[in-house]
Amino acid sequence: MPIKEFKRADRVAELFQIELASFIKREIADPRLQNLTITSIKVSDDLGHAKIYFTLLESTPELLRDVMKGLKHASGFFRSHLAKVSQLRKVPTLAFYYDDMTDRALKMTHLIEQSVLEDKQYTVED
What is the CATH number of domain 8-99? Predict the structure, then answer.
C-alpha cells in the first residue's frame, strides 16, 4: 500500500491550525476572542493566502461582528507568531471566515427531532 503524500500547503495548514489555536488560548487577552475555536485552515498552493475558519460557542450577529473586528486587529500579531514558528520566508496573508457548520448541524438535529415527535403523535392517533 503506497504512503499518501501530503502537499506542502496541507502541512503548513496543519501547523498553522495547531499553533494559532494554542496561541489564541495562551497569549491573546482580547475578550472578543476567548470563545473562539479554529475549525480548519486552508492554505493556497503558492502559500500566499490562508483561509482560517472558526466557530464560536455562542453566535449572535453582534458577537460575530465583534469577533471579526478582534481577529482583523490581531492578524498582524498572528502572522508574526506564525513567521517565528513556521520558518517560512513569507507568511501567507490571513483571512478569517465564520464556519457555520455547527449551527447548521444543530438546526438539522432540531428538525429531525421535531419530525420524530410529529411521527410519534401521528402513529399514536392511528
Answer: 3.30.300.20
